[in-house]
């Protein structure tokens, strides 16, 4: 597939940026990680996650005989298995570095893998993947959070910004519960995907996101989304990756 992709990040109104991101069109891999654990810890954790995803994808792409840590499962696509294994390795990598002043660190992650015939998304925590298709915005991930569990149990729409549980996540890499949710995706020409940290989607909301996606190059859209989230008062680190799918095959 012909891909137009770009990422952008901003420290927001924090003293340091704990978000990390990666765009690798050559690997068909796009990752956003939002670190937890305060100064240095969050930065180390999110960078560790992104580096682990990149390293494993490079290895299996360049060496077809490379060993996968988890055996391929029947019925799962290569992209689903790739992201599942990346997440497993990232969990190990973060846990191995949780010592001393880094002992409380962790990270969310959302990753998109685009293959020649299929695609997949994996996430842990509350970083999200959106898709704009035919003018309609859809969230392709469901937060691993206390608030989302409350929504499922009650059936009520609870606004994240108005709940004391809005930022309490139930899964994160580096913690005991780091199981990813992995989903196969059908990709169509014209789709536009947005991977982002909560610092982006909270101040913008779905209507503003839908209005910006698909309006220009991936680079320009990613930059505008981040800048608008900051202008609207975003206090957290703000990160966006925009991936547009065009004609042809990669």
UniProtKB/TrEMBL annotation:
PANTHER family: PROTEIN PHOSPHATASE (PTHR47992)
Ranges for domain PPM-type phosphatase: 1-245
Coiled-coil intervals, chain numbering: none
InterPro entries per record: PP2C (IPR015655), PPM-type-like_dom_sf (IPR036457), PPM-type_phosphatase-like_dom (IPR001932)
Organism per entry: Archangium minus
Stated name of the protein: Serine/threonine-protein phosphatase
Lineage: Bacteria, Pseudomonadati, Myxococcota, Myxococcia, Myxococcales
Parts of the chain that traverse the membrane: none
């Amino acid at each position: 597939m012909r891909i137009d992709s770009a990422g952008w990040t901003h420290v927001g109104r924090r003293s340091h940026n704990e978000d990390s991101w990666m765009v690798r069109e050559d690997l068909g891999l796009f990752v956003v990680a939002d670190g937890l654990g305060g100064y240095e810890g969050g930065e180390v954790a999110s960078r560790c996650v992104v580096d682990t995803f990149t390293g494993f994808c490079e290895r299996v792409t360049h060496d077809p005989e490379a060993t996968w840590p988890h055996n391929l499962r029947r019925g799962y696509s290569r992209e689903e298995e790739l992201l599942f294994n990346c997440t497993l390795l990232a969990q190990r990598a973060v846990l191995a570095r949780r010592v001393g002043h880094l002992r409380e660190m962790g990270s969310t992650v959302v990753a998109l893998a685009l293959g020649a015939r299929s695609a997949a998304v994996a996430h842990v925590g509350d970083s999200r993947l959106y898709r704009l298709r035919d003018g309609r915005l859809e969230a392709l991930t469901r937060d691993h959070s206390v608030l989302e569990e409350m929504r499922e149990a009650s059936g009520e729409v609870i606004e994240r910004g108005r709940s004391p549980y809005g930022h309490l996540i139930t899964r994160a890499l580096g913690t005991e519960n780091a199981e990813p949710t992995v989903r196969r995706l059908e990709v169509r020409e014209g789709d536009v995907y947005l991977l982002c940290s909560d610092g982006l989607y909270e101040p913008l909301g779905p209507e503003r996101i839908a209005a910006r996606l698909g309006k220009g190059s991936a680079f320009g859209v990613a930059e505008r989304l981040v800048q608008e989230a900051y202008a609207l008062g975003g206090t957290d680190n703000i990160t966006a990756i925009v991936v547009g799918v065009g004609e042809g095959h990669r």
